[in-house]
């Protein structure tokens, strides 16, 4: 009778041992590859987490906890604006403390019975026509408006025919990772405080570069220096008047200013498509009334 369970030969045992060793090596290699992959993904996840944390820290640093109360810059008024009386002069104001939690009356009623922001009013006979513009430094339409009408406004200013008040808002900070609307407005406030003779040139410069995108505080300080406002550097880089910027923005919202640019001429909101004609008509009417 034949043996049903023949004893494995030496060659068979060697082959089986080799196969077992191969299987063990393959299993070990798979384990090592899996561990390497897990390690690699762990490193990637760690890097992503670090980047996210850094991004949050940077954004929070930029947004910061801006105080609700503090001093206004020199030449800043209680309505949140700066009034040019020529291209090289701002209307002086008394020292002022502002508080976002104690805003003054934000609106008034004009001669036509319409509700307008506080401080918006018609000029008296022979006086310069008042123009008030609400602007957002990050607003492309504000940049276009300045590019289109800046030279004409400058001519009216230097002829003594108008005053021009900028009131900044920060509506577009909601779309900015760097709070550029607020930082740009702060830079303008710093220039008004330290070098009022350069304020007009700075406002024109900051809108002229709009197409290049948001810039950091160091670049804003360089821009101020380029228009003769080198004294504003420390204020710009330290966000010196962000409280006033916050105050001006809060007042505009209280007055229900809903977009930029919004322009008031001689006490009434202007149609921007007829801006030059509206201003010139007001200038002519004031001159005629003064001479009658």
UniProtKB/TrEMBL annotation:
The UniProt keywords, alphabetically, are: Membrane, Transmembrane, Transmembrane helix
By its UniProt entry, which Pfam families does this protein fall under?
A: Thioredoxin_4
Q: Which domain of life is it from?
A: Bacteria
The Thioredoxin-like fold domain is annotated at 128-285
- Which range is the signal sequence, renumbered to this chain? none
Q: Locate the transmembrane regions by residue number.
A: 38-59
**InterPro entries assigned:** Thioredoxin-like_fold (IPR012336), Thioredoxin-like_sf (IPR036249)
List each coiled-coil range: none
In its UniProt entry, what is this protein called? DsbA family protein
């Amino acid at each position: 009778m034949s043996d049903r369970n023949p004893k494995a030969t030496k060659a068979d045992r060697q082959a089986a041992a080799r196969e077992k060793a191969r299987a063990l090596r393959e299993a070990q290699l798979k384990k090592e590859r899996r561990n390497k992959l897990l390690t690699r993904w762990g490193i990637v996840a760690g890097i992503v987490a670090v980047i996210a944390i850094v991004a949050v820290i940077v954004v929070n640093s930029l947004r910061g906890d801006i105080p609700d109360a503090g001093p206004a810059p020199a030449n800043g008024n209680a309505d949140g604006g700066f009034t040019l009386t020529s291209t090289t002069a701002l209307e002086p104001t008394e020292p002022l403390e502002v508080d976002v939690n104690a805003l003054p009356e934000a609106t008034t009623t004009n001669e036509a019975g319409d509700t307008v922001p506080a401080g918006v009013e018609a000029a008296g006979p022979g006086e310069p026509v008042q123009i008030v513009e609400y602007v957002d430094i990050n607003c492309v339409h504000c940049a276009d408006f300045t590019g289109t009408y800046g030279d004409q406004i400058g001519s009216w200013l230097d002829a003594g025919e108008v005053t021009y008040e900028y009131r900044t808002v920060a509506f577009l900070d909601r779309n900015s990772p760097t709070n550029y609307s607020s930082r740009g407005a702060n830079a303008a406030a710093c220039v008004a405080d330290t070098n009022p003779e350069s304020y007009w040139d700075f406002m024109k410069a900051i809108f002229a570069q709009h197409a290049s995108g948001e810039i950091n505080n160091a670049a804003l300080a360089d821009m101020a220096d380029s228009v003769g406002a080198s004294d504003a550097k420390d204020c710009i880089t330290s966000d010196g008047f962000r409280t006033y910027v916050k105050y001006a923005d809060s007042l505009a919202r209280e007055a229900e200013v809903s977009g930029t640019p919004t322009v008031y001429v001689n006490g009434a909101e202007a149609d921007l498509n007829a801006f030059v004609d509206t201003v010139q008509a007001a200038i002519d009417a004031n001159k005629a009334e003064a001479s009658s």
